[in-house]
Design a protein that fits this description.
The complex is a heterodimer of chains A (about 270) and B (about 260). Chain A is an all-alpha fold. Chain A contains 13 helices and no strands. Chain A starts with a helix and ends with a helix. Chain B is globular. Classes of the chains: A mainly alpha (about 270), B mainly alpha (about 260).
Chain lengths: ~270, ~260
């Protein structure tokens, strides 16, 4: 750590070495050629952040110098080297959560797991980091490559993970359908030279054509949007049941039942 | 006007996706005071926008493993139960006192949020802490939501982060995952009453969907502390609104 003293002096000169740390890291790393970015971040972070600041420093540096998909490497290398003493969980969690925005959190943590802290803490560290970066169904995927918890079936496709992907697809589908219908409604009104007119009507009247086409499309769009979260709860019930999580399945079923009660009570009031 | 509504929705959707509160706190006053939309219609449109924010952002958050689906479902159970109870007991609750209390509480919460370390130390490697507390608060948030006219996000996000040890970004993403469900139950009632103005809702909701998608992509890139500060600003705005209502002040007098 010959550079540590030098870095500290620089920061003392600026009067605020804590705030300046990311800049210090960024400076050498920014000039690195692409395949040396990870090394630059790691080396810089190791020098300026030996005392618990690893997470912030790595975050700031990696986010700026490794925006092109190299975040995983940068985070893995930096976290493994600057936090060998039990702090890896914090560093990996914070860094991966911040620098891996496009679903790369799993990659970052997985890579960190494989590299791992050198002192046998890999399992605990990764489990803790994975639980926070990927707090739910992704944990199994994230923990790939490290000792599995007792009772886990190695290599098995996590049904909860698959279920969550199904939930995400359902949400995306509902949103896309609603957006498409609303866009068509607005375009229809614009082409017709007018505006959407009217308020929501009962389905029977909608089907009878009481509303004009643009307004009918708008109502259908809003309806599909409103149904999406309810469908999501129903799907979650099935997902948890299939994954063998009876308690969670019961919770989801209870949410669905309460929602139906709320709807019935609201309809009775209305 | 449709373009302005779209842009307003986009702003509210982006903000809502970032801080996990649905954007109603911005949209209702904006639609009512800015666009002259009747209050009940503004609330109905805002509920649609909450669903749009929730579904639009949660699609990304769930895919990326950023929200805690298990925790979300557990807290949602208590929120919905609280909301049902709240709808029964709301008339007998001291509304003005609760508004003033909520307004005062926001100051305490904002102070705690801003004093939290920049690094998300609230996230505990051991997982979620104090789940019973979170469930109790969710129940209370559900019960109060109808009385105070707020969603559960402004209450649940700080509790998840400060009390339950959930990292701030996971808390906002999980809140986003939850808020659409309770809003959906209410929006059907408003729609059945014919209070959902399609001319206002269509462009606004479309804007919110675009904004929520943008916010969900932006969120991982925004430093946690900046998000906390943004959340604190929104919470202060909401607290001021609650205090004003509790004191009988009419914002419309200023317009």
């Amino acid at each position: 750590m010959s550079g540590q003293g030098e870095t500290r002096r620089k920061d003392a000169h600026s009067g605020a070495w804590i705030g300046a740390a990311p800049d210090v890291v960024r400076e050498p790393a920014a000039g690195a050629v692409s395949n040396e970015m990870a090394n630059a971040v790691r080396d810089a972070a190791a020098e300026v952040a030996p005392n618990g600041m690893a997470a912030d420093v790595v975050c700031a540096a990696a986010a700026e110098v490794a925006p092109d998909g190299r975040a995983a490497d940068a985070v893995r290398a930096a976290a493994a080297e600057v936090a060998p003493n039990g702090m890896a969980a914090d560093a990996v969690r914070a860094a991966a959560a911040e620098v891996a925005p496009d679903g790369m959190a799993a990659d970052a943590v997985r890579a960190a797991a494989v590299a791992g802290p050198p002192n046998g803490m890999a399992a605990d560290v990764v489990r803790a980091a994975a639980a926070e970066v990927a707090p739910d169904g992704m944990a199994a995927d994230v923990a790939h490559g490290v000792p599995a918890p007792p009772g886990a079936a190695p290599g098995r496709v996590d049904p909860l993970h698959a279920g969550e992907r199904a939930i995400a697809r359902l949400l995306r589908g509902g949103v896309a359908l609603a957006a498409g219908l609303l866009l068509l409604a607005l375009l229809g009104a614009w082409i017709g030279g007018g505006a959407i007119r009217g308020t929501t009507v009962p389905l029977t009247e909608l089907l009878a054509g009481r509303l004009g086409l643009p307004a009918a499309l708008a109502q259908l769009g809003l309806l599909s949007l409103a149904v999406t979260p309810l469908a999501r709860v129903a799907l979650a019930t099935g997902v948890f049941a299939r994954a063998g999580e009876k308690r969670q399945a019961l919770v989801s079923a209870a949410v669905l039942a309460l929602l139906l009660v709320a709807l019935l009570l609201g309809a009775a009031e209305g | 006007m449709a373009a302005l509504l779209f842009l307003s929705g986009m702003g509210a959707g982006t903000l809502g996706a970032l801080v996990g509160i649905g954007g109603g706190v911005v949209l209702v006053p904006l639609l009512h005071l800015g666009f002259g939309v009747p209050l009940q219609v503004a609330v109905a449109v805002s509920l649609c926008c909450v669903i749009a924010t929730s579904s639009g952002a949660a699609a990304t958050y769930v895919r990326d493993g950023r929200c805690d689906v298990r925790l979300g479902m557990q807290l949602e159970l208590f929120t919905v139960a609280g909301a049902i109870l709240g709808s029964w007991i709301a008339p007998s609750l001291p509304k003005q006192a609760l508004q003033l209390l909520f307004g005062a509480m926001t100051l305490v919460v904002v102070r705690s949020l801003l004093r939290a370390p920049a690094r998300d130390e609230a996230g505990s490697p051991g997982g979620v802490r104090r789940l019973p507390l979170g469930c109790a608060v969710s129940f209370g948030a559900g019960a109060l939501s109808g009385t105070l006219g707020i969603g559960g996000g402004p209450i649940k996000v700080p509790v998840m982060n400060l009390a339950m040890g959930v990292p701030f970004k996971v808390a906002t993403a999980t809140s986003n995952f939850m808020i659409g469900v309770t809003a959906a139950a209410s929006v059907f009632v408003y729609a059945a009453r014919g209070l959902l103005d399609l001319a206002v809702a269509a462009p606004t909701v479309l804007g919110v969907l675009a904004g929520a998608s943008l916010g969900a992509r932006l969120m991982p890139r925004v430093p946690t502390q900046r998000l906390r500060q943004l959340f604190a600003c929104v919470l202060l705005l909401l607290g001021a609104e609650m205090m004003a209502r509790g004191l009988g002040f009419d914002w419309k007098a200023l317009v």
